[in-house]
Amino acid sequence: MKYGITAIFIKVAFSKTAFHYIEKQAPDLDIKEFRRKVFSEYREMVKRAPEVGSLRKNAFVTALYAACFSLQCTK
Predict the structure, then answer these.
(1) Is the dihedral of CA 25, 31, 33, 34 positive or negative?
(2) Residue 66 burial by CB count (10 A; 0-12/13-18/19+): exposed, middle or buried?
(3) Which of 62, 63, 64, 52 is nearest to 6 (CA)?
(4) Cα–Cα distance, 18 to 33 (Å, whole number)
(5) What is the pLDDT of residue 75?
(6) φ, ψ dihedrals at 57, nearest 5°
(7) Using CB atoms within 10 A of its CB, is residue 3 exposed (0-12), middle (13-18) or buried (19+)?
(8) pLDDT tens per residue across span 11-50
(9) Is 50 exposed, middle or buried (0-12, 13-18, 19+ CB in 10 A)?
(10) Distance between alpha carbon 27 and the CA centroid of its chain, in Å?
(11) Which residue among 4, 16, 24, 35 has its CA within the 20 to 30 Å range from the CA of 65?
(12) For residue 42, what are the contacts with CB-CB under 8 A and spacing of at least 6?
């Protein structure tokens, strides 16, 4: 898939809540380094994912981007 506006929207929409929760659960974690790694791996995962169509034609696209982001946060 392309790392376009939808991928960036998902990253922005979920990152504040996700990293705030992770920071509370793992206070000894270097959160800045973890964020950098998650964002980098998220970008690569999105680029490797198969194309499933446009957002207009397939509502599954948003779920796929969200899944890529959440999978990177759970590592």
Answers:
(1) positive
(2) middle
(3) 62
(4) 15
(5) 63
(6) -95, -20
(7) middle
(8) 999 999 999 999 999 999 999 999 999 999 999 999 998 8
(9) exposed
(10) 21
(11) 24
(12) 7, 11, 68, 69, 72
Which residues touch 66 (CB under 8 Å, ≥6 apart)?
Answer: 10, 14
Detail the DSSP E strand segments found in the chain.
none
Cα separation, 31 vs 28, in Å, equals 9
Residue 27 and residue 52: Cα distance in Å, rounded?
Answer: 38
Note the pTM of the prediction, 2 decimals.
0.84
Tell me how far apart the alpha carbons of residues 46 and 53 are, in angstroms, rounded to a whole number: 13
Q: Tell me the longest C-alpha to C-alpha distance in the chain.
A: 43
Q: How far is CA 70 from CA 3, 36, 40, 57, in A?
A: 16, 14, 13, 23
